Q: What sequence folds into this?
């Protein structure tokens, strides 16, 4: 394949364009330096975060719904850390867009009580996790004092979701 392509178009080091002179590029132009490899590895690190989280949901034998919220939070934390790390400066715009997408779907969890129920019913996470990770009345009060008038007592919200579900079913 490569041989026939070379015969038709010339080697990769030769650029031919109609009505333009043929240009020859030295092979040294195709070398990847240390700084280039650092960029490649940094990009791989960012993509690896998402791949690692995606693997949480690759189970045919166990339910995985309870993993959704902790997994999204873990991905968000990893990318927020990379956003602040100077090593990833080149990728800041992509990280910001990734975080915006993650936050878009994270906000949608508020509309779907099944994710909260999956956490509450899980023996490890239960309501204690919700209070620890998202806050209870003390955190709501502190946020309100700091000016966030839309602060929510997530522990109480989770209890309401459980109670409503129990009434419905």
A:
């Amino acid at each position: 394949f490569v041989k026939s392509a070379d015969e038709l178009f010339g080697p990769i080091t030769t650029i031919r364009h109609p009505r333009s002179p043929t240009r020859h590029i030295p092979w040294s132009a195709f070398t990847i330096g240390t700084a280039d490899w650092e960029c490649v590895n940094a990009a791989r690190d960012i993509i690896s975060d998402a791949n690692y989280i995606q693997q949480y949901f690759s189970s045919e034998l166990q339910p995985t719904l309870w993993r959704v919220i902790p997994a999204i939070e873990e991905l968000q934390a990893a990318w927020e850390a990379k956003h602040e790390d100077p090593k990833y400066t080149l990728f800041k715009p992509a990280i910001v867009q990734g975080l915006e997408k993650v936050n878009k779907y994270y906000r949608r969890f508020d509309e779907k009580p099944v994710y909260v129920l999956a956490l509450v019913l899980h023996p490890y996470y239960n309501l204690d996790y919700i209070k620890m990770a998202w806050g209870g009345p003390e955190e709501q009060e502190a946020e309100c004092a700091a000016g966030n008038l839309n602060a929510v007592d997530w522990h109480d919200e989770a209890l309401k979701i459980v109670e409503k579900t129990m009434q419905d079913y």
